[in-house]
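Cross-check.
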Amino acid sequence: MDIFDKCYAYTEAKQVMAAGLYPYFQVIRSAQDPEVVVDGRRMIMVGSNNYLGLTSHPHIKDAAIRAVEKYGTGCAGSRFLNGTMDLHTEVEAQLAKFKGREAALLFSTGFQTNLGVISALVGKDDVVIIDRWNHASIIDGCRLSFGQILKYRHNDMEDLERILAAHPDKGKLIVVDGVFSMEGDIVNLPGIVRLAREYGARVMVDDAHATGVLGKEGRGTAEHFGLEEEVDIVMGTCSKALASVGGFIASSHEVIHYVKHKARSMIFSASLPPACVATIGAALEVIEREPQRRTQLWRNAQRVREGLKGMGFDTGLSETPIVPVLLGDDLHAFRMGRALYEQGVFANVSVSPAVPEGRALIRTSYMATHTDVHIDRVLEAFRAVRRDLGAI
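Predicted model, tokenized:
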């Protein structure tokens, strides 16, 4: 048996390519703005997580440039050894303050954050309890731990309580997405917090799609529900509203100290480059002083959601700037994705394993910097695609 046999036998993606419907690895030749350049043509981008439109903000770009001028392009080592600069600790203090926590810790990616934190905290005598619709990074972090992994039905508090009640003598960590990245619905955090308190569990919320988006000040899911004192660990990514790359957790001094010395994905990875770190700090400053961006973001999302529903599209459970169109069948999703592309709209085709089997969808997400003209064109594209593709 040749270990490469599986590579030679893998044909699914090639079949989609042969049908002219392959939507992935598109080469973009411009910034992540509301309009992007793909294949030499301008398209409206509704597939980006640049929620507040900060990737092109002058203050943020200037911060990145100044960081390169002072610190160079990289840290040439891990945080554990030579890769911690004053810039890292300053931005970690900013993140902790923003999230209302004692301390914070930066990782090189959001995926690595969940891998490192969950596997460090959950031991062989513990259970980690997750929503079935959680992000892949949470699932993989659980797999790397030595604890027992238990899943409950999506946002189903009765099912969660059943699991909690069955493990009274175990250390328990509940890990959930604040905003579910495919369907755009919000976790039932009040229910989770109540059950965690009753059954002695700790709560970790992944605020990847909530930081800068949810809450009056953009601090995320816990602020949205007024439960900032009830969540033990907040995780976040810096590649979405924070306009950079990387991930972080914010928690108590003791938890951060432990994770800092136990999370293998941080200890054995190169440190986040200076320009990226400076970008995160500058983005936090803009989020605090330009709240109108968040207001406009929600206005844009609501307009699209109402427009799609008015055409008869199923937007699922969406209640955030992530607005999916549920289609169910993978081929339908590939066909619609291609049709939208031809209409000049860049949207994301999401099929299994990114979504459950039979729940294929077109994932759209919106920015504060989308104008009314952009939204009009997106809705018109969906209207034209619905007309041309009939049943879809």
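The mean pLDDT is 97. The chain has two domains: 12-45+291-389, 58-289. Passed to J.P. for a second look.
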